[in-house]
Structures are given as structure tokens and as C-alpha cells.
Amino acid sequence: MADKTAILSVGIDVGTSTTQVVFSKLQMDNAGGYFSVPRVAIVDKEVVYKSEVYMTPLKTDVLIDTDALRDIVAAEFRKAGYRPEDTDSGAVIITGESARKENSDAVLKSLSDFAGDFVVSAAGPDMESLIAGKGSGAWQYSMDHHCRVANLDIGGGTTNVVLFEDGETLARGCLDIGGRLICMNPQGIITKVSPAAAVMAQAAGVSVSVGDRCDELKLTAVTRQMAAALNAYLGVGTKDIDAILRQIKTPGSSDFPVPEKVQAVFFSGGVADLIYHESADTWAYGDIGVLLGRAIRESRLFTDFQKMEPGETIRATVVGAGTYTTTISGSTITYSDDIFPLKNIPVIKLDEELQEACFAGETEPVIRRIQWVLGQNDEEHFILAMPGKRNPGYTEMKRAAASIRQIMDRVQPPGEPILLVIESDIAKAMGQMIRQQPDLKRQVVAIDSIHVEDGEYVDMGKPMMNGMVIPVVVKTLIFG
Description:
Layout: E1 5-14, E2 18-30, E3 40-50, E4 54-55, E5 58-60, E6 63-64, H1 66-80, E7 89-94, H2 104-111, E8 118-122, H3 125-136, H4 138-145, E9 148-154, E10 159-165, E11 168-175, E12 182-184, E13 190-193, H5 195-204, H6 216-233, H7 242-247, E14 264-268, H8 270-276, H9 289-297, H10 300-303, E15 306-308, E16 318-328, E17 342-349, H11 352-359, H12 364-377, E18 383-386, H13 394-411, E19 418-422, H14 427-435, E20 444-448, E21 457-460, E22 471-479
Parallel strand pairs: 1-7, 7-8, 9-14, 14-15, 17-18, 18-19, 19-20
Antiparallel strand pairs: 1-2, 2-3, 2-4, 5-6, 9-10, 10-11, 12-13, 16-22, 17-21, 21-22
Helix pairs in contact: 1-2, 5-6, 6-9, 8-9, 12-13, 13-14
GO molecular function, one term: lyase activity
Organism: Coprococcus catus GD/7
Keywords: Lyase
């Protein structure tokens, strides 16, 4: 692609408390040059329409109202002046407690027909932390200022925390702390107390139960306990609440080591607005969000670090997916004929260190990395990508092929295909060596001369030019 190309992309974010729709125009250009591997990059992004922020519609505490959600998205398409067929790409991301709702898969499927080519994903807590940290600007700030930055994305049900340093992710974690863990009706009667909120109430020495009348002093004590937990998570304030942190750790999230030398803190998510800008109405949202924002603003989180207010707080989210065609694969490829086409396959890319481990026959570090990613996305299909080596020896290649087979046997169900993308032109030899592994009952696709990054999604079409090459589409999530 020699010339710049513009596409219209839509991002739909379904969170614990809120749902929103964003339309963006994305400018893409080939940054790879004429004589190198094509690498189309997003060179400019313009948000052209933002929906209002809706309360995520629920049928019950564990069921999202799929029909109501579709109605919201359809209405926003009309307000924005677009039809589904106008969009070139898009992303549906379901996060927070919504990702744990019983019908979250049905929600993703019901929304995925609102654009021609959608990426859909239920983000696990660690992945959501990364999404929020990029969306708030914390990741970019850490690169621009060469410093250590934390982002706390405080929503209705969870607080996702990520730590960046100079663009690198040092740690990520998640706690069940949020503004809608305790809810009340317009008459001031408590209608919901989540298990995590009950833990916090007990730690604060107060009793809060469904059916009680709201007591601002008691609920303030609960939210101050929540703020104290977040303080301890970032290494300030009380040190004696490790047991509480273990009880409210979000299932599926990583351990978060207490960080040192954090220079700046960003707050994003729905509660962030209430941290930076206090609401005069304590019960404005029928929950404890206003009290939680106030408790955090009065805590050491707000006084001990340089505070950075994102350009967007509640909207620090995915805004779409840039779709671009990397013409064709290289011609040194291996594949099984009847497997194509393949759509929206997530990429797990090995860095140089993990690739070296693979070529050395050390499979455990690679297995741990893949299992973590799969745990975040609830995927079974994935593409294993690596930069590849120039002119590796036969013994080295044979060892790597055996490693890849062992890795896939550990991390994938039987019968799932082995999908490889290698940037250097060794895919054909690697694929053939994998297929020669004894008792292999998997299809193998190995293509090269394609540059992909971790977290992207790939489509592969049917082979072309007498089976010599494969058309490939790579999709990149774009963050607000």
C-alpha cells in the first residue's frame, strides 16, 4: 500500500456500569517501504462521533439484556448518520463484571454484525488493565517522559491497575473495587451488596445489608476502606491489609507486586470523573460511586503522586480496529488445503528471548506466556508469531519444530490447528518439520514475510497463484 488510506471504524465498549459507542476515521500508511516487509501503520486517528454514556442494560444480576444493548447500538448508528455497511472495521470489547455475565458470548455475537469486519473480544482483567492504561494516555506518557506510571481504571465492579515504565508493562492486576458494589433505590433503600463490598464493610467495622436504609457515615467508612486497599496496592498507607487484598482480588487477574518509585498516577473509568470533579449529589447514580471518588481524592493516592488527568476518563476505551491488507504472504509457506478461510484469529507473538527459548528446546517459559494470554481472552484458536532467524541450522530448526509441537499439545485442545506466522522466510521448512513430528494429528499453517504484533488479529484467505501465497488481513485495536 503506497498511498495513505482512510477507513471508518467503530468501537463498542460494554462495561459493568456503562456502554458507549465511538466512531473514528483512521489514516493508514505503509511504513515498511518498497523493499521491506510491508508494515501498514495507523498514522492518524480522528474521533468523529461519541455516543452518550449509557447504563449497561441488565435483565438480572448475571444476564445482560442483549436486545436492549442492540437497540442502544442501533440508535447510535442512526444518530451518527452511519449504517452498519458504512463501517470498514470495528471492535466490540466486553469488560469488567460484564465479561463474567452468563450471556457475554451471546452479547458479542449479537453486536458483531454492526460492521463489515469486526474484532470481538471479552477482555480478562489483566487485558482490560492494559486497554485502559493505553486508552487513558498513561502508556504514552510513560514513553514520552521516560518514567514509571500507574493507571487505575475504576469502574462499576472492578479497579484495573497497570504499571508502565518507558512504554514497557511492568505489572497488571485487578481488585473487586468499584462504584456499583453497593446500590440503592430512589427511596434510599440498599438493593445490592456485592461479596467484595461485604468484605470491605466487615473490615471497616460496619454492617451493610440489602434492605437497610442508606447511612452515609457507614457507606463512607466502606469506601474509605476501599481507598485504603488501593493505597496499599500501590505501596502507600497501611501495610496490614494483605488478607483483604487477597479476598477482593479479581478472579483471573495476575499478582501485582507492590511497586516502587511510581512517579505519576492516572485515574480512568466512571469513578475517575468523580475523583477529579466532585458531584454535589451523593446518591446521583444510585450507588457508592460519588463516595468512592471522594474517598480516593482524600487519600494518599491523590496526594503522594503526581496526578495526571486523562483527556478522557470514562471514555478511555477501545475506539475501533484498523484493518489493512498486507497484500500476500511470502511464497515459502506450508499449509493444509481445507482449513481456509480463517477469520479474526488473535496473535500471540514471542519476543526474541522467548523465541530463543523455543529454538533451544526450553518450552516452559513459552507455555506460561501463552497460557496467560489465553486466560485473558478465553480463546482456543490463536496464531503463534515470532520474528524468526536468518539461516538457522538444521539441528536448531528441528529442535524448534519439536518445541512448537510440545507447546501446542500443552496449550491447545486436541485437533486445534497449529498456526504460525514467522517474519523471516523459514516458514515452509518449519511447517514441514512440524508436520513430520510423530503422531501429529493437527493441521499446520506456517506463513512468512508478514509482520504482526502481539494482540493483533489476522484473517487468512484461500491460497492464490496456484497455491503459492496466502492473502492476509491484519487488524489492530485502536485505543482512545
